[in-house]
């Protein structure tokens, strides 16, 4: 072992030789100091913003949109780790404001079909970063609603109306996590269900959010 090289660094170097880390958007091999996105894609990422109770880590578009599509529909679950790390880094600004992290749930039928819930994968490192519990059992989706993609704002609201129920509030202050926020209809329905169940405050965090108009 070379002087000054730690064991974790050695293992990471070996892993990169066997299975190189690749850009979440374009599959370019990542350099030692690159995380999730390559030097070509990283500059194209736009940081998201916090508006009221909602925070988005990035704007939905470009390389981030491609990364989300690969994770969600391409079954590239290995991307959940680097993308989750980026989300957790942004979530740090919410430290002290939440007592539990809750991912937006999939209906059991879709979960079986897809094999994973991308929101839950992304929420895990967020809960670790905030040192609060990850709660996946209290918020449930009652209907296997059609995908929101392709629906207008009114259609999205109608599609998820009454689609969620919380068995109980997992904490007084809850952080609701999802991969993407477009109109916010899904997050609003989930937040309402948690509030009805007794949550005093619900914040929302997404990896990528559509730019807000106005």
What is the gist of this entry?
With 214 residues, the protein is an alpha/beta fold. It is built from seven helices and seven strands.
What does this protein look like?
By secondary structure, the protein is α/β, with parallel strands linked by helices. It has 2 domains: 9-44, no CATH class; 45-209, 3-Layer(aba) Sandwich (Rossmann fold). Helix content is 35%, strand content 17%. It is built from 7 helices and 7 strands. The strands form 2 sheets. It has a 5-stranded mixed sheet with strand order 1-2-7-6-3, with helices on both faces. Strands 4-5 form a two-stranded antiparallel ribbon.
- Overall number of structural domains: 2
Kindly state the percentage of residues in helix. Answer: 25-40%
CATH topology of the largest domain: Rossmann fold
CATH architecture of the largest domain: 3-Layer(aba) Sandwich
Beta-strand content estimate: 15-25%
Helix-strand layout with pairing:
Layout: H1 7-18, E1 50-51, E2 54-59, H2 62-72, H3 80-91, E3 100-103, H4 108-114, H5 118-130, E4 139-141, H6 153-160, E5 164-166, E6 173-181, H7 185-196, E7 201-209
Parallel strand pairs: 2-7, 3-6, 6-7
Antiparallel strand pairs: 1-2, 4-5
Helix pairs in contact: 3-5
List keywords for this structure.
214 residues; alpha/beta; Rossmann fold; 2 domains; five-stranded mixed beta sheet; two-stranded antiparallel sheet; globular; disordered N terminus
